[in-house]
Amino acid sequence: MPLFSPFDLPEGILLLITDGLAAPADFVLHRCLATHLKDNKRPKATVLSVSEGIVRWKALASKSNINLQQYLDSGAIEFVDVLANVQPPVFASGNGDDSRSEQGEFLGKNTCNDLKIVLERVRAFLERSVHDQAGETQHAMVILDDITMLEWIGFPLIDVARFMRALRAVCLQANATLLVRHHVVTPDEPDELLRRLLQISTYHLEVRPLASGRSGNVSGEVALHSGFSAPPETIRLVPRNAALQYRLTDVGPDFFAKGTSEVVL
């Protein structure tokens, strides 16, 4: 089953998910996690949460008939409250060029000791996941929700970008799926962090409000774009002018084409 139906997204990718206050993408993250837990014999997922506590994740999982506590108790899911582990550096490290900043270089930076702790937790979790698979080919899942908050609480852009590149490298090494949410404040003027995220993403899932505003029947729309790291033979993309509209219900989103009420999935 695809990572996030009705979009034909494969596993083992870096999926950048962007949203805004008028159309939050919580439903994307929670449906992806629910799909991963239901479709894998030995699911393994770690959630790096910067904005929401475990109580909300449990509540939303229960709407998909998932007892998240059971997965936490078994070790199938690890929940990391990022703000409980990190503090922004007192002195900013500047906004210099980090084009060569990969996993190794990030780990050597003294300005990111807290983020390094988070990265090492992910690495250890993925190493255990590979060992627990007992030879089966399954992709672990890593969710970062949301990266924007790290910059908002005071981490310099270069540190956030280095952390993201290092996290990507760790996930690539373990063949894990990485989902990253980024809040867009000015849709018509992409910020520098978004530009850097697009450079390393496989695909970009864009959750947008309706131009006419939210209605009772439509909550927003979703488009799918290729990232700079997408393979030459990519999946079917969904441009903005053909974006799928969605309606949020008590059990999750319903998708349908513009101008119709026929549910896609």
Automatic annotation (TrEMBL):
Q: In which pathway does it act?
A: tRNA modification; 5-methoxycarbonylmethyl-2-thiouridine-tRNA biosynthesis
InterPro entries, alphabetized: ELP6 (IPR018627), P-loop_NTPase (IPR027417)
Question: What processes in GO biological process is this protein linked to?
Answer: tRNA wobble uridine modification
Record GO cellular component, one term: elongator holoenzyme complex
As for family, the record states: Belongs to the ELP6 family.
User: What's the protein name?
Assistant: Elongator complex protein 6
Q: Lineage from the top down?
A: Eukaryota, Fungi, Dikarya, Basidiomycota, Agaricomycotina
